Amino acid sequence: LKEMNARSVWHPMAHPADSHANPPTIVTGASGVRIKDVDGHEVVDGVGGLWNVNLGFSCQPIKDAIAAQLDALPYYSIFRGTTNDKVIQLSEELRTFFEPDGLTRAFYTSGGSDSVETALRLARQYHKIRGDTGRVKFLSLKKGYHGTHMGGASVNGNANFRTQYEPLLPGCYHIPAPYTYRNPFNETDPQRLAQLCLQALEDEIAFQGAGTIAAMIMEPILGAGGVIPPHPSFMPGVRDICTRNGILLIADEVITAFGRTGSWSGSRHWGVQPDFMCTAKAITNGYFPFGAVMIAEQVAETFEQDASGKAAIGHGYTYSGHPVGAAAALACLAETQRLNVPENATARGEQLHQGLLALQAKHDAIGDVRGGHGLMCAMELVSDRETKSPIDKKTIATVQEVAYHNGAMVRVSGPNIILSPPLVLTREDALVILDALDAGLAAITG
Ligand code: PMP
């Protein structure tokens, strides 16, 4: 299998030749919060699939819903003229679920990148409907990750994901992120740093001209960029600046929606109502590729009350509102609420965060520990704590590998080790992850 994989599979986010030198783990099974590989190892999944398997791998109600839907209606499009019962039921449930966020309509997609693309397009269209045709630019945060479509890549805050694919969408500008460990202001106080980043946002808007900007897109807590929670004043500050300048706020909650932050959404976590919210990932717990862009009431009304014809939507996917995906999402939403996952996410998140801080006291390689907002934590590894020089790829890969052989799968993203386990993790599972990391770190420090 390893040879065939190297010969025939190109992996996302990896060098195509890498599978020869470093054969990937071949996962052949999973149950609860554990995955099994072809060599017989069974480990706690500290990654939660890819931030999406919030309820673990054995969610019977979702499996039953998918099986029943495959019998009833495996596919039909919801392009103009047809719909299906499951997508209607799901939309009503999502409307209730996201009502506190001010979001009342759903536009369906096949995943996170599609959700981002949808929100960017609808944001431009919103301004066109209002006759504000100059508003075409987008703002986003450095270190933000917004998927890999041309639009999403353009607003991506990490240049490594952009440069190979340029020219991208013109008119995209990236604002410093409230990242206390490293920032251009050398500011370590989270509140003062939030203020400086907000000022940078104001300055960029003034420089570009407010009337040229369609939307600001941001993750409530930066995820793939290394789990960077901002000071609580930051996202409300962004909301305020956007509102004052007629700029729409797109919350990219592909990771944070549905409980991961310890709140039902990342926007709610910070007390903010966005104009669009991109969701995907945990919406079906990984059982089906699916996503939804939730739309604020006032944006929806602008589209729905337009008489000029400009609001007709020239955008959508074959699998928008897929009935099997909708059935999976309905069952997933019910189970997510029944289990009240934010509560456990908060408790286990706190345990992991404290555990990582204890590891930092023991291992010099840990430069920074981030967490404290549900089950998304990270540690940033350095080769020297004083100079903060990033750890090299080979050393961090060793930490990951040794952790795996000590019972836990963890994710490496640049110099960071990221933890985003299922939200149903137990105290014992969390201890397995921490002990495995301890072993991994011990292996590089001798
Ligand atoms: N936005 C965010 C915040 C994400 O974390 C991701 C995926 N990690 C995406 C968008 C893209 O989602 P997908 O990989 O499902 O296209």
Description of the structure:
The protein is of the alpha/beta class. The chain folds into two domains: 2-55 and 340-445, Aspartate Aminotransferase, domain 1, CATH 3.90.1150; 61-338, Aspartate Aminotransferase, domain 2 (3-Layer(aba) Sandwich). 40% of the residues lie in helices and 17% in strands. The protein contains 15 helices and 16 strands. The strands form three sheets. A seven-stranded mixed β-sheet has the order 4-10-9-8-7-5-6, with helices on both faces. Strands 11, 12, 13, 15 and 16 form a five-stranded antiparallel β-sheet that branches. The chain has a four-stranded mixed β-sheet with strand order 1-2-3-14. α7 links the parallel β5 and β6 (172-175). α8 (190-208) runs parallel beside α9. The longest helix is centred in the C-terminal third of the chain and has 22 residues, at 341-362. The mean pLDDT is 97. Bound molecules: 4'-deoxy-4'-aminopyridoxal-5'-phosphate. It comes from Aliisedimentitalea scapharcae. One of its GO terms (molecular function) is transaminase activity.
Short description:
This protein has 15 helices and 16 strands.
Unreliable spans: none
Shape, per Cα inertia axes: globular
The count of helical stretches stands at 15
Largest sheet: 7 strands, mixed
CATH topology of the largest domain: Aspartate Aminotransferase, domain 2
The SS-based structural class is alpha/beta
The end-to-end span amounts to 33 Å
Bound molecules: 4'-deoxy-4'-aminopyridoxal-5'-phosphate
Mind telling me the CATH superfamily name of the largest domain?
Type I PLP-dependent aspartate aminotransferase-like (Major domain)
* Strand adjacency order, main sheet: 4-10-9-8-7-5-6
The CATH class of the largest domain is identified as Alpha Beta
Average pLDDT taken over every residue: 97
**What is the domain tally?**
2
Rg calculated over all Cα atoms: 22 Å
Percent of residues in helices: 25-40%
Proportion of residues in extended strands = 15-25%
Number of strands: 16
